[in-house]
Amino acid sequence: MGKLNPKQVENLAAPGTYEDGDGLRLVVKASGRKSWVLRFQIAGKRREMGLGSYPEVGLKAARVEASAKRGQLIAGTDPLAARDAERELQKQAQRIKDARQISFEELAIEYRDAHGAGWSDKWRKGWLRKLELYVFSGIGKLPACDIQTENVLRVLQPIWASKTRTADEVRGQIEQVLDAAKARGLREGENPARWRGHLDNLLSKAEKKKARKRQNFPAMKWKEVPMLMLRLAQSNNSRDSVAARLLIMTGARSHMVRLATWSEFDLQQGVWSLSSERMKAGKAFNIPLAPEVIKMLQNLPRVEGSQFLFPGQGKSGAMHANAIRNLLHGLGHNDITRHGFRSSFRDWAGERTNFPREICELALAHDERDQTEGAYSRSDFFEKRRALMHAWIKYITSKPATNVISADFKRT
Fold first, then answer.
1. Which CATH architecture has domain 222-402?
2. Is pTM, for the whole model, over 0.85?
3. Which of 150, 219, 265, 270 has the fewest beta carbons closer than 10 A?
4. DSSP letter at 301?
5. Measured between alpha carbons, how far is 324 from 311 in angstroms, rounded to an integer?
6. Is residue 180 helix, strand or coil?
7. How many whole angstroms separate alpha carbon 37 and alpha carbon 19?
8. Would you say domain 6-95 falls under CATH 3.30.160.390?
9. Cα 363 from chain centre
10. CB 143 within 8 A of CB 186
11. CATH 1.10.150.130 location in the chain
């Protein structure tokens, strides 16, 4: 029998420790708070374990709990470690319960809000609109932890053949949202929307390749780019002109240039570093900067109070989405698009240099290595890409009449 009785426990008021026996004790604080503590030894070390507060835990319940813990000790189990493990299981169960309260649609909107600060209004609306049209009716109400490959396929298969490019963009969006959910502990396991090594085995690769070919942007012939560069350098609209030249010289996408911030550039090392949020493929990417680009940016005045290289008056704080296009139209080039300069660069690299195909593709942030090859070849071939971009800029900044072709890289 224990030394304490229920009435005694109820009436104890003086601060101190009152033994019940076999390591169970009642601790009374100066504040009047009472709590149960079990003292025991394990591996030669004295330990103490709280069993709850009085009166929530009465004397009888405290003795039952203490007896259970002593039973664990006899079985060779540390009661504290067992309690911690049980609490972790309870936390995991609560996380799963919480995860089931948040739908994919809610997660997608939260993702858009968290990452869309640097997007244009048009891009923000379009990003969510595609999910509204093709995804939410299928998996929008499901929690992230319940979305499996079959759910993703049911969304993509109806539009994969007829709207392949849109379907692939939607697939990428689903992948991004589910990756974010996993980072928040709302799901576990592999991402069912990933392409390489997963959906590429279940959906037609041929349709995806055909969709890429169908997406043809009106492009300037590479032989005409040096003349345009000369005209841009002479343009009175200097800041938009610098943006246009940066676009052409780096092979970047227009939104990458429009939303470029000074913090992304290391002009000492000649690197433009873009985070995964800024890249279409969702993977961070470094662009090598040739000396001509560095000099041009060093001469570009910074606008006080703005993080952008090319500030504007809109909500985003960056230059207008059509600023470069309007500049090109003003120069009489209504027949080309900003994106088309990537094709100009790629055609030049393929026709007039000996740089390997994979280097030319990587220069445009197109990584076409398959999963196995990518696992062994993790390099982004930065220095080889630097040599390629140097050759490109040497060509496009040469006098148009000379038609200089530069390619000093040799395949080995």
1. Orthogonal Bundle (1.10)
2. no
3. 150
4. P
5. 13
6. helix
7. 10
8. yes
9. 21
10. yes
11. 104-214
